[in-house]
Amino acid sequence: MTSREPPAQRGVTRRAVLAGVGALALGGTATAIAETVPWQRAARPEKPPAPVEFYGDHQPGIATTPPSALVLTAFDLATNDRASLVDLLKRWSSAAEALMRGELLDTSTGSSARLRDSGETRGLPPASLTLTVGFGPGAFDAIPELVREKPPGLSPIPPMRGDALDDARGGGDLVVQACADDEMVAFHATRQLTRLAKGIATPRWSQRGFGATTDVRRGQTPRNLFGQKDGTANPQPGTLGFDPVVWVQPGDSPPWMVGGAYLAVRRIRMDLDRWDLAAASQQNKALGRDTVTGAPLSGGGEFSAPDFGATDNVGQLTIPADAHIRVANPAFNDAAEMLRRGYSYDDGYTDDRRRDAGLIFMAYVRDVPQQFTPVLRALTERDAMHAFLTHAASAVFAIPPGCQPGGFLGDTLLG
Q1: Does the pLDDT value for residue 108 go beyond 60?
Q2: Cα torsion for 91, 97, 102, 104, to the nearest 10°?
């Protein structure tokens, strides 16, 4: 899915001047380089990047540069007790702060088994780990005191044409997004938070993803499994247009969400075999860009603004009416934009020997019904790319703002 055309200058890392965010495609840590050394000696990597800060006005893992690995996990609440949920969020916040610094959880003698770290990342750096926590619609329905605090737009995404949704892979009362440059670190963090939730929340589904981090570190837009540059037109952190697109603003409802964002998730299976059989010209027309260079078919370079009125020598639109970048463009969607933070996935083969691979599409927005749902509907109804895609799962979550030392994630709602 494509948002607006970005400024010509792309962002830099959050530790320097904030990273460019892309499809799910933002960059963000120091690039490892090899010294010229004798062949028998291992190359020495650069010093690992500093840990991402847990505390702040916004939760990490949204405007921060996405590392290479994702573990996204949804939970169902096993309680309707407000105090139990508060206790869980406090545990998760304390654990997330330690894990993001590269520390193990409490391993002191006499601590309970639930609080002892499983230890599989002992000796590893934090690897740019970020942990992001949110509430699904069911959390507000399950706990009586929260019913009146449910955000107006927080409801399941309406059915779309061609949906083949697996309920077991969608929905959820809580969500934890773990991203890191080491898959073991992301897995370990998710494992610890899952253990801490025992008795209060149970895992509903989990999805692992991977990204083209090398491209990002070289200042290039990463590619998805169709070989397309994915994230060319993402809004950039640190620019004037970013905050009103992503962060809930003062005056928005409900007040406890100010500084937070909403997360829409779609598991999109890509028909790689069919795509591979399509001619390059068909692929380009379906996207509206040259799949090699990323340039719009109207001409220019990757970051040139598409000319949707351009025609060829026989009067046909250069960028077809059903091209992805036309259908998704804010100019045709009441100026709706979103921050895409997606990861590729590969879950092997289905029972009919078809590859189950594609995109974990994650969009962060200020308002799901206004920014995400209309664009998704347009794409499923008019986008030529939709012929190669199947939407297999769906979920939506309210991601509260960040917290300060002494507080906890969700304290604007439950504090």
Answers
A1: no
A2: -20
Distance from C-alpha of 383 to C-alpha of 312, rounded to nearest angstrom: 21
State the DSSP string of 299-329.
SS-TTSPP-TT-B-TTS-BSS-TT-HHHHHS
Give alpha helix (H) positions in 229-352.
242-246, 272-277, 280-287, 324-328
Distance separating alpha carbons of residues 203 and 198, to the nearest angstrom: 9
Q: Token pair for residue 291? A: 């799949």
Taking residue 111's Cβ as centre, other Cβ atoms within 10 Å add up to: 12
The rounded distance, in Å, linking the Cα atoms of 355 and 243 is 38
| 350 backbone dihedrals φ, ψ, rounded to 5° | -80, 175
Task: Give 16-76 as a DSSP string.
Answer: TT-----TT----SPPP------TTSPPPPPPPPPPPP--SSS-TTSSSPP-SEEEEEEEE
Round to whole Å and give the CA distance between 181 and 275: 29
Say which residue the tokens 């779609």 belong to. 266
For the chain, give every domain's residue range: 69-414
pLDDT in tens, 188-234: 999 999 999 999 999 999 999 999 766 666 677 889 999 999 888 89
Taking residue 10's Cβ as centre, other Cβ atoms within 10 Å add up to 20
Cα–Cα separations (whole angstroms), residue 196 to 94, 190, 407: 11, 10, 18
**Strand (E) or helix (H) holding 266:** strand 261-270
Given a cut of 60, whether residue 411 has pLDDT beyond it is yes
Given a contact cutoff of 8 angstroms between Cβ atoms, the answer to whether 4 and 330 are in contact is yes
For residues 153 and 142, what is the distance between their CA atoms, to the nearest angstrom? Answer: 17
